[in-house]
Fold each of these.
Amino acid sequence: MPGPMRTVRGPKQQVKNPGKLLARLMKYVFRDYLFPCVLVFLCIFIGVIANVQGTLFTRNLIDDYITPFLLTDTPDFTPLARAIGRVAIFYGVGIVSTYLYNRIMVYVTQGTLRNLRNELFAHMEKLPIKYFDTHAHGDIMSIYTNDIDTLRQMISQSIPQIINSTFTIISVFFSMLFLNIPLTAVTLVMVAVMLVCTKMSAGRSGKYFVEQQINLGRVNGYIEEMMKGQKVVKVFCHEEETEEQFREWNDALFVSADRANTFANFLGPINAQLGNISYVICAMVGGVLALRHVGGFTLGGLASFLTFNKSFSMPINQVSQQFNAIVMAMAGAERIFRLLDEEPEADNGYVTLVHVREEDGELKESAQRTGRWAWKHTHQADGSVDYKELKGDVVFDGVDFGYTDEKMVLHDVKLFAEPGQKIAFVGSTGAGKTTITNLINRFYDIQDGKIRYDGINVNKIRKEDLRRSLGIVLQDTHLFTGTVRENIRFGKLDATEEEVVAAAKLANADGFIRRLPNGYETMLTGDGANLSQGQRQLLAIARAAIADPPVLILDEATSSIDTRTERIVQEGMDRLMKGRTTFVIAHRLSTVKNSDCIMVLEQGRIIERGTHAQLLEERGKYYQLYTGNAIA
Amino acid sequence: MIRRILKEVKEYKAASIATPLFMLLEVLMETLIPFLMASIIDEGVNAGNMKHIYRVGAWMVAAAAVGLFAGMAGGRYGAKASAGFARNLRGSMFHQIQTFSFANIDKFSTAGLVTRLTTDVTNVQNAYQMILRMFTRAPASMLCAMFMAFQINARLSTIYLVAVLLLGTVLFFIIRHATATFQQAFPKYDALNASVQENVSAIRVVKAYVREEEETGKFQRASENIYRIFVKAENNVIYNAPLMMFTVYTCILLLSWMGAKMIVSSELTTGELMSLLAYCMNILMSLMMLSMVFVMISMSMASIRRIAEVLDEESDLQNPMHPVKEVADGSIVFRNVDFTYHKDSAQPVLKNINLEIHSGETIGILGGTGSAKSSLVSLVSRLYDVTAGELLVGGRNVKEYDMEALRNQVAVVLQNNVLFSGTIYENLRWGDKHATEEECREVCRMACADEFIRKLPQGYETHIEQGGSNVSGGQRQRLCIARALLKKPKILILDDSTSAVDTATDSRIRRAFREEIPDTTKLIIAQRISSVQDADRIIVMEEGRIHGFGTHEELLAGNEIYREVYESQTSGGGDFDEREGE
């Protein structure tokens, strides 16, 4: 059954290689559930055999029991009772195996979906930031919802159905051969006709189905866009124009939905009635054969054959009904595997971050927390180990960077920050301020130049350790579902109670947290929707504070916070910056003014650098921005 | 509720009626076939009458042909009716939403409206088609087969009656139980998806703190939970198939035993027994189908309710009987205005507002978050109605104006502003459909947008992505201002619309306003004091009240909030690019 939550999605493309995809999917199912799958296979097989045995009984009923009964005056019913008992056992076995395979399939289906979800998520977490930049979040979400859903339908229903039908077709086919060869030939001809009709109808339905998905994607996209902008629509009195466009696309969707469903609906009656005609033809031909006793064919034989005839066309009908489900599932599987095939973030770093203590003026690695850290540099050539204390010395040397190779965003950026220094970036939106900070922690890799951290090329540092040594407060604050305490602890998982409170106090967050209904235990949901923008920012600062990193990156965005809240946030930030190398993207004079160095960026280049006093002296861009007298 | 949404069937009524009728015809034919079959065996084969076989065979082919035609026609009209119904539902809801006021939109939320227009409609469409095609077909097929069976042999057919009653009762309980468990499971499923959503949007935080493994662990625990809940829920449903088989097999065996006895005592013929066995499948399959229809209906009930809610929602703003089309000038008067978003909430958002703003004035509005600045200005273009008091624009109560005319002359640049997918020209022309390219460029120059637009590879023909995601925040805000300027409004309201624009550009925009549209009344909400300090007068808002109203100098002298904000932003604490007493 489909989940109630579905996200809007774009048009679907047709799957290129369905066979290969199916094989990969099955491999996936078998990997974790080989034994249960074998059991299911067996159960289906037993079920089919039992069913065929039951059908064969109908022939025996007439030929071996009823017809002889009619010939004697005192019929003995005991053999019949025995036969019925025997068949009842067959049926019983069939029922039990059907139950078993349904039950096992629940575990196989749900288990496979769980494993797929887990693998998707674990893999997604390893993907580079670039992946998230280049893929719409709605599309990523839809893999977890829609695509997994279509797979559920396919694994739990379509595949067992197909296996079942295949077994049935094979066993019925041999039973028919056994009963009468000419009638079997007649049936086969009719099946061929059915297949051709199915293919025609399903093919056309499939074509319109794809069209319908494209139209649906377009309508849903339009709905999403317009509902988000509904207030703007109102303000501009654009209701009629909006509706006009909607009507056009809604009509197109109707046309394709109508056609797709029409052809899909044709499948049922076509197959059913062709099945009936096949039945009639067999009855007529069989009647002639039985009357003339050709090849010892009997009335009972005809009755059985006719039942088989029905059992033969039914599974074909059932498989054809699964057609659309499979097409959809394959499209979903393709997107799922595409995500799983994405290259994870590469990490060739080998320099790691370790706890150290000092003994006789030398750094020694320590298993416990010592409050001091060092880079452990294992030289690849001779395996010798170096320790270099973590200080927070950052150097950019001639760095060029672009999100794509074609378009550079940063040009020849040079800067150095000594431990404990504060470096500020100013410049208009899009000048490349945030981009620079994203390079220090290697969210992106640079095209040219070098970035050194405590004298080590950042490419040599293991990403995990590099990022652990950097604290970040991002422009958009993101909180996680969980308690306030858990959100602060995000920065340091083994933090004690006292450390959490201390961090909150440092960030100026303790006061408001205590006023929340459950204090530190208050649950936050939906990205902290129950907190104000300022409060969320304070929590983000506390989260960075508890991690206690030597280098801080503050992308402060306070434009949406009112001035009084901003001051509280600022105080928290100022306290956090004390004694750390800080890179700050600043909007506020106080933050910038006392920086050790201010970088003015324009279109990806540092155009001015120096202290506040020096820059004012220069009377350049900084001066213009500062005085609000920019002359463009 | 159901009746309400059925109104939307409209022009597809004929198709909606035709579908079940054709399905009925198909059922009749399908029931007829086993009956004719019996005749072939008894009177044809047994009597050695080939002629009879051919004749009845021909009838059967004819019946199949009619069945085929009926089935296809049913499928055709079923598809048309349900797709059409869905189109009408979507269209009507969309239309209804266009009449909604801001208050109505707030009530449903954007996400709520999107779900109703997409998922809910699809659910109802599928359920409708299922009902049209199966709801008559399944019971009819069952009744016909039952009738025929009773015609052949009433005594044996009571077996079916008993079987149907038993199976029906058990199915009913299974389904009721299963739907309940599924409905409990779905919210958990949504919660899991929400956690994915959270991680996708916060991926930078996760990576910055190296928390990939912890997050994966958290997700896996949640996913394990889902697994358990769904296995439990699905384990309820899996009894259906074996139960069905059990009933069918029991019927076959009972029929065989009793049928054999009756044939011996000449109460039944072999052909009749064959027909009875054939009806067995018909009857029980129909029952199964019927139970599925019930599942679908109960599953789509929630969707039906949500759709009906939108269709029944009345806009709480209505145009007056004799609307005034022309706003005389840009003067605004608030007289004892109170305002609340919800009629029953005790705490008013705005309390006793009295203001007099002259045409052509520039008014700055300042205040902390939650001080109701946005609420104040949204009353001017009648996005909401005042709860008490009155609001005059151009000397008349806003309720006397035609809403479209009022909003065309009072332009608002909203706080959460949106651009739409389309070229820059197309976006700008939301302000004025017939604006020439020259006019578009003119307003862009005023809003300081012309400069960056020219630098874009395709200039004004650049395609804006959905939500304006391919331009920066500051650029988006400038485009939104230009779009509003194109209306040539008498009153222009900027609700914190330059927060992402740097101060230098911000001041250029304000200068342009001053020089080029001096007659337009300008209301400017801002956080930065520099954005408002050169306004003619400034309103200081505090907790839904007007705390101060005057010029920069007056407020600086006599209003402590204003002074506090001013000092915090200028004396060593302001924006780095702040004008500092120069």
Amino acid sequence: MALYSEKVMDHFRNPRNVGVIENADGVGEAGNPVCGDIMKIYLKIENDIITDVKFETFGCGSAIASSSMATELIKGKPISEAMTLTNKAVTEALDGLPAHKLHCSVLAEEAIRLALRDYFDKNNIPYDPKEFPDAHCDTCCHT
Amino acid sequence: MLPYMDEVYGNPSSLYSFGQDAKEALEDARARVAACIGADPREITFTSGGSEADNQAIFTAAHLGAKKGKKHIISTAFEHHAVLHTLDRLKAEGFEITLLDVHKNGVITADEVLAALRDDTCLVTIMYANNEIGTVQPIAEIGAALKDKDVIFHTDAVQAAGHLHIDVKEQNIDMLSISGHKFHGPKGIGVLYTRTGIRLETIISGGAQERGKRAGTENIPAIMGLAKALEDAVAGIDENAAKLTVLRDKLIEGLDKIPYGELNGDAVKRLPSNVNFCFEGIEGESLLLLLDDKGICASSGSACTSGSLDPSHVLLAIGRPHEVAHGSLRLSLGEDTTEEDVDYIITAVTDVVTYLRNMSPFWRDLVDGKRQHVFEK
């Protein structure tokens, strides 16, 4: 029994949307080096549509795969849809993650939220702060 | 091993001839193992592995000490968990534990052991060679320093047996643990050497096997496999060490060229087979998975590979910060490793580290000066 599903390994070996967007409309970063994973999401947004998304990830196989899948799930989608992306959706799209790796999908959800908040902030778009919890990792002992 | 599964399959405790044949084989194996480490056959107890041997040795020495009112134990911060967790249990029983600092190079000195010694010290347990970073401790010097003291000296020699010289008498070792699968023997079998005069505490109660000190029907095939593997390893010890040291140093030299990476542990006082590096800006598990795709089996001390939230206690003990310990890589060389393999590994590791750094926001921050490098180069 392999540690990861074939889908996870595919997204880990051939990650989609790796890179940086210069002058991105929104940037979000979740995690920290002490915990051993950081995800950074870059968004290009036009008329409320996420026209491009890139990521950089420092982390394990499932962290890289979660970033790759999460970016695929929001690419070309309206902001409203990206705002409702859950870690559960990322995990399901990857055909599951081992229990001790679920926090990787949480990081992906967080990084995307933070990138969207950054976009709202930059464009003076009002939002409910409650929808954007501060970056944290629930499962980590170092917070 | 095979004949002891289908030909000599008797129970050594039985009187019938099949059993007695097995008993003879068992005692022959005991004598051969004893000869490999300079012990007397009666000082050899077969266990289920290194962990059981460590447990039994430590509980024995601690409880013998407690009878004399001595409840202080000296060990190091980077022992195997079979030792550390046993010490935790003793702590709960009221023992006081001193864990010596292993320094940045992962090597302690006999003087440091002596300095920590107290009137109520009953046990010094220090590993011969570290299982992650391969650093070798001055076991003979520590043994000599403790020779005339009323304290039991145990060493977890799981990584050393079959790879480094062991002579328990010359090195003044009172108790020593060995595990079969670390020198191409079978898994699930180990040895505890106990110097004559130390009364072993029984951990597994039951029948009178192993002189009543370790109950349970002996695993004869595994014991025969262990004895043969240890003899073979000891016979080729110098030749192998010489060959592996050359390959190890070549691998270290090659990996050292990767920027912002550093060898973990002393470069010289280390097992001939062990190479262990930390690389900044990457995480160990993704490194292992990509190396596995290239046919390289390695391990890491990152939290993600340890199954816990913290990276390796060994890397933390030598002062590596968490963020660097997550990016560790351990490579173990074997007798079959060739120079071509080493060249291939150097290229593969360099490529994979570069690839992962190129997608790492942590690495980008280091390059942009937004975070501080831990290593100088």
